[in-house]
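Annex B. Sample input.
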Amino acid sequence: MRDYDLHHHGDREVGPGLVDLAVNVRLPRPPAWLRQELASALDTLAAYPSTVDASRAIASRHGRPPSEVLVTAGAAEAFTLLASALRPRRAVVVHPQFTEPEAALRAAGHAVSRVILSEADGFVLDPVLVPADADLVFVGNPTNPTSVLHPAAVLRSLARPGRLLVVDEAFLDAVAGESESLAAGVPGVVVLRSLTKTWGLAGLRAGYVLASADVVERLRAVQVPWSVSTLAGVATVACCRQSALEEAEKLAVAAESDREYLVSGLADAGVPVLGDPRGPFVLVRVPDGASVRARLREAGYAVRRGDTFPGLGPDHLRLAVRDRDVTDAFLSALRKIW
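Annex B, continued. Sample output.
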């Protein structure tokens, strides 16, 4: 298989003075009410952290027992835990998608098979493409970087006895109504969630795993003690409250409107968006993409290169959805170099 820089992420594209369209964190900082919650917890930092309250909050939010919840230091920690705890005979990663699942599996010594979805088909997931003997399968929903939202029915069809299906729903709370989510629970399915994208918490590392109790215990057994900080636990509880969920829904609706505005503007500029984007980012392909990315950088805009994702190449670029003022300025800069 072709080698890719699986550890390259959008934060490496960002630099001083650049408008960040490379990182898919929606807010530039946590909202004021969340910052206040975090600040109020500073005096408790002398004590070792506990995730009991966070686990209960997550369980209540998704209607699952706490035994089916594992709080993690961001969703990315879960990939390492899965790779460490499991011994798959045949692990499969559906690409293009976030590269850390494959990186974690390889670091743990597992061989990895890739299923590459077709750009010509809009990166639609056909369950037939996944080998029948795969006993560990990773897929994103909505998938980073394609922004495609796979139907829940299609994902459920991939679950079967003897197979663990891991669905990365890190961006699902940015989809209005959280449609197509499997977080409520499906046998043989592990769901990963992140709080960092919607709430501007990438530096805090807050996420969780939803799975059967036996899988959660296997992951907990290899988790580093106290890997989830006190502040991450506080943020998790706060972001699971009903008021926060209602605010997240409003943010998701606004993001969808801003995404459609970006898609329309790109089409007017002669840059069609690939697939049917449903997440807070879009994927495009432009001739001489590396040069376009460099010229955008010179114009003050950081965008995410696509050639570190298996299945994509240097002409692919991922663009984060921002508000309309930022989008207008970006499209103006794009037209000047296009």
